[in-house]
Structure formats: C-alpha cells, structure tokens
Amino acid sequence: MKQLFFSCFALILIISCNQGPTRYTQNSPEIDTVKNLIANYDAKNYDTSMYADSSQTQYNSSKTMTAAETMDFHRQSDANYSSRGFVTEDQEYEMVLTDDGETWVNCWLEWQGTLAANGKKVKIPIHLTYRFTSGKIVREYGYWDPTEVVLTLQQLAAEAKMAEEENAEE
C-alpha cells in the first residue's frame, strides 16, 4: 500500500512539474529579429531578409504590402523628414505563443521625426506586431496616429499653392 501511495505521489509530482513551452517572454530570437529590423529602419537599411517571401504588412489600413513594398513605403516617407527614427528609451517588446501555436512579437515604441519642409518636430507612439513562422516574419501590423504629420503636410502644400497662385497673378 505504501509503495502504491509513493508511486502515485511521484507520478503526480512529475506531472505537475512538467511545464509546456514558454507562452510569454521578453527575451527571444524573434524579439532580437524585431530589434534588428527597428535598428535597420533607423539606419535607413531596407533589408527584407527577415521577412518570409509571402509576408504581408499592413500599416493603419487593410491595404496589404509585400516586404519590398513595405521598404518602398519607408523610402517614400523618408522624403518628408530631415531626420527620423525610434526613441531608444522605454521600448517594450514581448513574445507570445498563442493557443493556436502562433508566435507573435509585440512592441510599443515612440517614433520621432523632424519635417524637412519646416523643421517641425513630431513624436508619435507606435504599436507594431509581427507573426513569425520558422524564424521569419510572415505578418506585420503597424498602428499609429498620423494626424499631426498629415495635417502639417497638407497645410504646407496649401501654403505653397497659395504662394504659387499669388506669384502667377503678379
């Protein structure tokens, strides 16, 4: 009887100590990949090697871009700024393994830029999330409020048009 009790106790102990995979962490190879991607963005190095060939990116819309289109998006946006990049302080990263077995990395960052046209400095909080498969990014979503930048660029364009029309009248 004692032997049966100790055997059951040992079995319960072994089962209770057997933990599954880590479901949440702030240190992983996937997080390192995202940090490298952020560093590449800051350095204007538009490397797509971290993305799977079939990756899809969506920034503030349902429009889907390939990795190459995403890099083109960044290049085109750069024309608006004399400087831009992510603030290095208070960056938060987490990796989550979902119930469906998907690996996601989330990050919360602050982006800052200086508009080339008027020198206005802008800071924007940004949330980025990445789904990984076999160490490559297969999905990327980015969310931020571009209102201040858009309104400023629209105002500058309107002022330039007014000045052009005034010069044409003279």
Automatic annotation (TrEMBL):
Official protein name in the record: SnoaL-like domain-containing protein
InterPro entries: NTF2-like_dom_sf (IPR032710)
Lineage, opening ranks: Bacteria, Pseudomonadati, Bacteroidota, Flavobacteriia, Flavobacteriales
Gene3D superfamilies referenced in this protein's UniProt entry, alphabetically: 3.10.450.50
